[in-house]
Write a structure and sequence with these properties.
Helix content: 40-55%
Low-confidence stretches: none
Number of strands: 8
Number of helices: 24
Largest sheet: 2 strands, antiparallel
Strand order of the largest sheet: 1-2
Length: 474
């Protein structure tokens, strides 16, 4: 593993799926962590052969919502199977794509604007929804908000697809305020929720009956003056889309939205309890740049609190799964059989309660690390570390690094063997207490001379190092 500074490692762990020798080489080649981060903000300019490779593995994701619907109706392929492929594709890209920061931000925004792939109606449009998030994940929040809140998948999930002037449904109007923008602390009223919901009427989606279509119907739009948290519009036109766009623009640029998004970004990338100074700096960048995401992220990374936050973010189960595959240098191959790695891995990471896009309620998975530190979660991670390090399951459809390739030149002390493996696996020197812990697990002393290290001992070293705080944090 090429050497990196502490800051470079921090950047890599927070804004990628996990440190690898190829990533470390990329960071050094571009001039360090900050330069690499700047490059990652322009994903279209990054050649991504491994990501392109993954893109060709799941042909169901290239079909339109109507095609996905028709194939389910005709019993060719269930939409739920397409959703499994969307999950697999997303995890495979997090493992292999060089556009690492984009994958991280897609996950962040998809969680903020959560539409679960398990929804029986929204699922037909969920691939299209993912594409919208990807398109705007590094542009500006105003554009991202407009293209997600008014998307057919969101309309179906939060019932805006059936909301009319005669029977407004308040689900989306409420969650738009509570979860997607200003937050409950902004002090909006029940009347604000009702007004918000009325303004969102007209965006329709028919599923099953009378036909499969997504459209705007001005005849069901609720006309009349609108007032929501300082936003006012006469909303006199039969077609209310201009008024709706103005409303979403207002919410995206609201100071409360800036504060809420800034805090959520700081929790995700810095600390469970970010300082007011950090949150304010990020919120100010967001507002000064008219909701642009790139300068907002740069303000976060440039703040002193970020550099001082190493070890403060616990990996979620899925982040841990991705980082483990990457650390072990397992290379996925195009799946052909159900038991091939890229297919079977879904059933492995799904067990750990954090599979992509499967949180059932609109608030998304918990961002606070405390939500992922239960005994059950830790035991599940320890189990997956052994399975993956040993290549027990999934074991076909992927290339695993041979155990003996992890070893430094022998003979060497056990201390040097553990540290040599750890530097390759974790990207940094192994702390003395950790080396002693691994030796205890092996039942050997650190100063013992090793002329040969069997595969079982290498596996034990790998799995034990993956269980340490160094790996379990990002």
């Amino acid at each position: 593993m090429p050497n990196l500074s502490d800051f470079d490692r921090l950047i890599a762990r927070r804004f990628s799926g996990g440190l690898t020798p190829d990533l470390a080489t990329d960071i050094n080649r571009t001039g360090g962590g900050r330069a690499w981060f700047g490059q990652q903000l322009r994903p279209a300019l990054i050649t991504d052969p491994d990501g392109d490779m993954v893109d060709g593995w799941f042909p169901s994701l290239g079909r339109t919502p109507e095609q996905i619907f028709d194939r389910q109706v005709n019993e060719v392929q269930g939409a739920w199977e397409v959703m499994w492929d969307l999950s697999r594709w997303s995890v495979a890209r997090r493992i292999h794509s060089r556009r690492a920061l984009l994958e991280v931000m897609v996950d962040f925004w998809a969680n903020l604007l959560n539409v679960p792939i398990t929804d029986d109606d929204a699922c037909f449009y969920r691939v299209s929804y993912d594409q919208a998030i990807r398109r705007y994940a590094l542009t500006n929040f105003e554009a991202l908000l407009k293209h997600t809140v008014l998307h057919s998948a969101m309309g179906l999930y939060l019932d805006n697809a059936v909301s009319t002037k005669d029977a407004p449904n308040e689900n989306l109007g409420r969650e738009l305020l509570e979860l997607h923008t200003v937050g409950v602390d902004a002090g909006y009223s029940e009347d604000d929720v009702k007004q918000s919901s009325k303004l969102l009427t007209g965006y329709r989606v028919d599923v099953w009956w009378p036909s499969f279509r997504s459209f705007y119907d001005p005849s069901v739009h609720a006309r009349g003056p609108i007032s929501v948290m300082g936003f006012r519009h006469d909303n006199a036109d039969r077609d209310g889309r201009k008024a709706t766009m103005a409303y979403l623009r207002y919410l995206a640029r609201h100071p409360a939205t800036a504060q809420r998004l800034a805090r959520r970004l700081c929790v995700r990338f810095v600390s469970d309890d970010p300082s007011p100074a950090l949150v304010t700096a990020v919120a100010n960048a967001y507002r000064a740049n008219k909701t642009a995401i790139k300068p907002t992220l740069k303000a976060l990374v440039d703040h002193p609190d970020f550099a001082q936050s190493a070890g403060q973010r616990i990996r979620t189960p899925t982040e841990d799964y991705v980082a483990t595959v990457r650390a072990l240098q397992i290379r996925l191959q195009k799946p052909v059989e159900d038991n091939d790695f890229a297919n079977a891995m879904y059933w492995q990471y799904h067990e750990y309660g954090n599979a992509p896009f499967e949180w059932p309620t609109p608030d998304g998975y918990p961002e606070l690390g405390a939500g992922w530190t239960t005994a059950g979660r830790v035991l599940n991670s320890l189990s997956s570390h052994v399975d993956l390090a040993a290549g027990w399951w999934p074991k076909q459809g992927a290339a695993f690094r041979p155990f003996q390739d992890w070893l430094p030149a022998l003979p060497a002390t056990l201390d040097a063997v553990i540290d040599g493996i750890g530097r390759q696996l974790l990207g940094e020197p192994v702390p003395a207490a950790t080396r002693q812990g691994v030796a205890t697990v092996l039942g050997l002393s650190l100063d013992q001379q090793m002329t040969r290290v069997g595969d079982w001992r290498v596996l034990t070293i790998l799995a034990t190092l993956l269980d340490t705080p160094t790996h379990m944090h990002r």
